[in-house]
Amino acid sequence: MRKFFLSIEQFLGGFLEQKVGILSWLLGFSGIIALRVFIEFFLASKALPIELIIIEYVHNFLFFAITLIFIWLIVSFFLGINPQKLSKLFFWILWGILLPPLLDMLKTGGEVFWSFYIIGGPKFLTVQYLTFLSDLPSGIVYFGTKILFVSTVIFFGLLVFSQTRNWLKTICSTLLVYLALFAMGAAPSLISFGYYFFDKTKKLSEIQPHQVVQLFASSTSIFGLRFENLEYSFPYNVQLLLFPLFLLSLTWLFFVLDRRKFLAVLKNSRPPQLIYHTGLFLVGLGLGGWIYRENFTLSLFSVFAALDLIFCVLLAWAASVVPNDLADMQVDDISNPERPLQIGAVSKEEYQALGLVLFFLSLFGALLISVKFVALLFMYQFLGFVYSAWPYRLKRFLFIASFVSAVASLTIFFIGFTLVSGDQNIQGLSWRIIFLLLFCYTFSLPIKDFKDIAGDAKCGIKTVPVVFGEEKGRLIVASGIFASFVLSVFLLREYQLFWWAILFGSSAFFIMLNKKIHPRRVFWWILAVVSIYGLILVKVAFGLRLS
After folding, report:
1. pTM of the model as a whole
2. How many Å separate Cα 188 from the centre of its chain?
3. Segment-wise mean pLDDT, segments of 10 residues, the chain, 547 residues
4. CATH code for residues 258-428
5. CA 227 to CA 221: how far, in whole Å?
6. What's the gap between Cα 170 and its chain centre?
7. Domain spans in the chain, listed from the N-terminal domain onward
8. Which of 50, 55, 77, 285 could make a disulfide contact with 416, Cβ separation 3.0–4.6 Å?
9. How far apart are CA 312 and CA 506, in angstroms?
């Protein structure tokens, strides 16, 4: 027995301490999932429409990614090593994802068992957990999946014991790996327990399998989106709830891998921009709900669809920061010396890889809802690229830079609006509103340039404060903001807002001129003024129409 464990230790030693880069991981994992979908739906089943293949790909990707990250964190914790040292081992383990459909095909002669989850009430799940899935109907968990399930638990138990020779750690890690696998296998059931606990329409002890299926397999609309395929509504709705869990687990893995890099990147996220982008989306969503009131129905899945898109928008913003920081190295050396590249927290190569991963995650998250959001976010990313990076680097040119940023901001607004409008896209959106927003964004976004005057001036970037000086630049931007308030009255044809627009526009004007307010804090003051005015605008413009 000792020789057996020694041979395992020697074999695994060849995989430990060797790292696999983040881009290799992303490409390898994406390719393995693509191969699994190919096996399941091209070799073993009839061809499906492309939209259903996309659903299966996204669903498989999320399920296996979350499961893998959970197990990765558990094993690295009990081994007492950084997860990076296990990256090559787990990279090779990815091939195990292909085993279930292949084993199913061997057993059945070419067919794959349908179903991904253990579905039932609390009592049923408790029995299955305690009996190691011993009493499942043949159609609930596939033959191949059960073999992979057991093999995974045994493999990682042997791994921990061979590296630690500690029975307590081995038993605890094995139980947690089993728990992680079981929890992911029972995810829809567990989610339904939480839903019905707060919904109060059913007692947890009375939940039956068909009620779990009904919750996820319903064809209810998600705001303006319609999904009529009942068979695939189940994975479609499940993946809406899995995406935030995937991002949370991935964030935790990043933190554990390298806390210094994680904190440096997090600090560099620019909270004002995160709030700004979230606000753009929510304003679009709210306006869409006003125009298409028949589509604005809240449900578990519509709320998570909106939440998922907010995450995608923030990921897109974070991805756009990377080419900007790489191109602005000289500017940031002067104006923003606390950024990740300046303090040496990450290398250029690592930062580029991170940007590509954020770009992928943004589009991937949009894909699980609708292809149209992929197109809109891709356009946003492209505008961010031409704004920041060579050979375009449009941020060098006065007013053109602000206009490009304004169009990018409008794209985020369109995403929120389109989620509610559905197939109508932006057809119901008045040109007056589009022009107002474009004007506001163009003349307000230069606020962010005042903190970078020294760096931009040295590198020849012609922003408003660089060309006109800080004092005149503040006056120009303040005037543009004031004009935006007044313009809203006439473009929206809500003349009762006139004095409110004068009051809040003047407040924003003088805030912008006040040199005692540091350029990095001006945004927060302007945001407060705009938010209060926005609430009054909603009450006046929409509240009166409701009455």
Report:
1. 0.91
2. 20
3. 59 67 92 90 70 88 96 94 90 90 74 70 85 60 76 90 90 94 91 84 78 78 76 85 96 94 91 91 90 86 94 96 91 87 91 95 94 95 92 87 92 94 83 90 87 83 87 91 92 87 93 87 89 85 53
4. 1.10.357.140
5. 7
6. 34
7. 2-212, 258-428, 430-448+473-547
8. 285
9. 35
